Amino acid sequence: MPALLHIYLQDHLAGATFGSELVERCRQRNERSEFGPPLAELAGEIASDRQTLIAVMRRVGAERSNVKVSAAWLSEKARRLKPNGRLFSYTALTRVVELESLAIGIAGKRALWRTLENVASQRGKLEGYDFAALAARAEDQLQRVERLRLRAARLAFAEENSYGIPG
Fold it and tell me: Least buried of 45, 48, 121, 139, by fewest C-beta within 10 Å?
């Protein structure tokens, strides 16, 4: 039976896979807007964080769960089928919901780094990683996503009149 830490890391790798796919889609759909450059920066950082997690997993001997990673990848694709008021197009509401989902994922990643920082002294193979810096970076990412989310919400909901009809 896999160690509890291994299962925990596998679950977070699944979440990181979902987040990487989500931020990349959001970046692509917004590359020609004011959201493009900050999302491109976030996408690079999130991909780097995922690679760090994979390195941590290798160090402690946790194998990747292809089932969990594949399920996360498919879940992100299926999430796109959620009705957003228009059947096939990317909308201002889609952007808001994607940024909210991204914020949730980053908060989970921050929790991961804080947890690993907390247990690193008990698990020698975790030493050598600056989990405090990774958690701080996740906090910074969360703040940047929140600013983008609020901007996206202002733009999305300013386009409607009081009856919810696009203006």
Answer: 121
Which residue has 């929140």 as its token pair?
146
Q: Which domain holds residue 110?
A: 4-158
Beta bridge partners of 166: 160
| Residue 82 falls inside a structural domain | yes
Number of domains in the chain: 1
Give me the DSSP letters along the chain.
---HHHHHHHHHHHHHHHHHHHHHHHHHHHTTSTTHHHHHHHHHHHHHHHHHHHHHHHHHTPPP-HHHHHHHHHHHHHHTTS--SSSSS--HHHHHHHHHHHHHHHHHHHHHHHHHHHHTTT-GGGTT--HHHHHHHHHHHHHHHHHHHHHHHHHHHHTB-TTS-B-
Residue 68 maps to a domain? yes
pLDDT of the chain, 167 residues: tens digit per residue: 459 999 999 999 999 998 999 999 999 999 999 999 999 999 999 999 999 999 999 999 988 766 555 655 556 655 555 555 555 567 888 899 999 999 999 999 999 999 999 999 888 889 899 999 999 999 999 999 999 999 999 999 986 644 454 54
